[in-house]
Amino acid sequence: MPDETNSTSSADSTTAADPTVTPTPVTVLGLGAMGQAIAGAFLKAGHPTTVWNRSAGKGEDLVARGATRAATAADAVRAGELVVVCVVDYDASQSILEPLAADLSGRVLVNVTSDSPERARAAAKWAAGHGIAYLDGAVMIPTVMVGTPEALLFYSGDEAAYKKHEALLKSLGGQSAYVGADHGLAAVYDLSMLDFFWTSMAGLVHGYALAAKDGVPASALAPFLQSHISLLALLVGETAKDVDAGVYPGEEGNLAMELEGVEHILHAAERRGLDVSVLRGVRDVAKRAVDLGHGAGSWTATVEGVRNPGA
């Protein structure tokens, strides 16, 4: 998550700027780990970069590589055609931005601070009221990947502003994607992908803990879990189609049968003294979907249990 607490820079200062890039003056407000990585990627791509941080003592490496340190946030904003703010949350970003409304007017503001879709939409409303072209963004990769062809960032909001600065924004990540005019959509994509990631990580460490109770080290199980991960990758697209269509064909394995398998895992984990709160949640959602009449459907039908928690 973007913040102002870590001063580690991830950019490669030895890489020359791309001579085909048209330089655009940019400003980065917030020099935590992610802010420094973003400023470093702009420098690497050949863009004049001005930086500012609320607390002193950050950004020396960036200045040594050619960035300009502004004395005030207003000075920083006036130096950039595109202004990126990257701080700990929207309370912090709004406290920085609100006094700068006049300076930001006529510029493009990109907020890659992590927060909710609702906060993004509120910030967009504020920006529109001050004549500021606004993009909300979400950085989906760690600092070490910022500026690489594989890096994924989401942007939503002012489409004209995105198109104007698309090449500039893609200097932060080659997989950058504009996901819609609704300013909250970048946060929706962010939260949805992190929802998948962290629940998957919870399952991974729980599986390791379960194996360890019977003397199987995580390193022994890991190669076989790789095959499961490959299977999951194959299921992503098909599952999306079924979720969107609301159709859950269960010919190859129905939910009622798979629910029994979850019960076996849960009971085994309980007997071994493990925390089963996550597994119990999985079981309860699946059971709710069965009770709603989806027992003959596939595991994807558990989405109905998620959507109807009070059923």
Main sheet makeup = 8 strands, mixed
How many beta-strand segments? Answer: 8
Overall geometry comes to: elongated
Strand order of the largest sheet: 3-2-1-4-5-6-7-8
Order of helices and strands: EHEHEHEHHEHEEHHEHHHHH
- Share of helical residues: 40-55%
| C-alpha Rg (nearest Å) | 23 Å
Distance between the termini: 35 Å
Question: Unreliable runs, pLDDT <50, ≥5 residues?
Answer: 1-16
Rounded average pLDDT: 93
Structural class: alpha/beta
Characterization of this structure:
The chain has 13 helices and eight strands. Helices cover 50% and strands 10% of the residues. Helix 1 (33-44) links the parallel strand 1 and strand 2 (49-52).
Briefly say what this structure is.
It contains 13 helices and eight strands.
Relevant terms:
single chain; 311 residues; alpha/beta; eight-stranded mixed beta sheet; 13 helices; elongated; disordered N terminus
